[in-house]
UniProtKB/TrEMBL annotation:
It comes from Actinocorallia aurantiaca. This is Tail specific protease domain-containing protein. PANTHER family: CARBOXY-TERMINAL PROCESSING PROTEASE CTPA, TAIL-SPECIFIC PROTEASE. Gene3D superfamilies: 2-enoyl-CoA Hydratase, Chain A, domain 1. Residues 52-265 form the Tail specific protease domain.
């Protein structure tokens, strides 16, 4: 595990790994402590190590939790409002989340809206791919963003193709959303706040660089980095940050908040003023 951190962690250059080369552990508890110390030295708020007990507790809470589904409504009978909440995992609830959101987009578009509002406030993240799939008709096919390594090289790109989000060659959409809007590339307002984090920031990044898109609210939480979950044989789990995220224009984001185009506590009011 120390070797993996030294080779793959985004902030690996900040740690003197030679101090760990001679470390030995006489128990799993000691090994956990060494790994936790190395993670702490990385100084990466998006990387964390879970002991078997904590990992099991989180999994139990996750299994008992019901994720909210996307919701929406018309405002002024001519503006489509779509709220995208957090969602995690890859199982049936994620498929239900995606199918519900896709159907909602089709329903709202049936009213021929003059503009769209995508609300990412309070979305703490989870799995970016169902979120991006739901809003796929607003984004259109093509390159959306990239995962960038510590050396600045592009590790992979996420893009849309016929309603499917592809990360490299891999289809990441649990349910495709190939619906085509009545008006392509509509005026779209994105609402964000300090609760917009991780996968929600990746969803935000998928919109950045598009024409007729503007963001409103407060700076995001600042977790725009790519993570990988690594399970250890004893039940411990490492969430390792391996990359930064970049938008379609190549602008790179990391663990710093993403500022909105227009800042203010009442993001919805600001967005409505712009759209109207």
């Amino acid at each position: 595990m120390l070797g993996m951190l030294e080779r793959r962690a985004l902030n690996r250059a900040l740690v003197d790994w030679t101090q760990f080369h001679a470390v030995s552990a006489r128990s799993l508890g000691e090994a956990h402590a060494v790994i936790a110390r190395a993670v702490e030295m990385l100084g990466d708020k998006h990387t964390f190590f879970l002991t078997p007990t904590v990992a099991a507790e989180r999994l139990a809470r996750r299994s008992a939790q019901t994720d909210p589904l996307p919701t929406g409504r018309l405002i002024d009978d001519r503006l489509a409002y779509l709220a995208i909440p957090s969602v995690a995992g890859w199982d049936e609830p994620v498929r239900r989340y995606t199918a519900t959101g896709a159907a909602l987009v089709r329903e709202l578009d049936g009213h021929d809206p003059a503009g769209w509002i995508v609300d990412l406030r309070g979305n703490g993240g989870g799995n970016m791919y169902p979120m991006v799939t739901v809003v796929a008709p607003l984004l259109g096919d093509g390159h959306l963003g990239s995962f960038v390594g510590a050396d600045g090289s592009v590790q992979s790109r996420w893009e849309l193709r016929e309603g499917r989000v592809l990360d490299g060659p891999t289809n990441k959409s649990p349910v495709p959303n190939p619906y085509v809007l009545r008006h392509l590339r509509p005026r779209t307002a994105i609402l964000i706040d300090r609760g917009t984090a991780s996968a929600a920031e990746a969803t935000l990044i998928s919109f950045l660089g598009l024409p007729r898109v503007r963001t409103f609210g407060e700076p995001t939480a600042g977790y725009a980095t790519g993570n990988e979950g690594i399970d250890l044989p004893d039940g411990a789990r490492l969430i390792l940050t391996c990359s930064k995220e970049a938008d379609r224009l190549g602008r790179v984001y990391d663990n710093n908040p993403i500022a909105p185009d227009e800042r203010g506590e009442d993001a919805l009011a600001l967005a409505l003023t712009w759209l109207r």
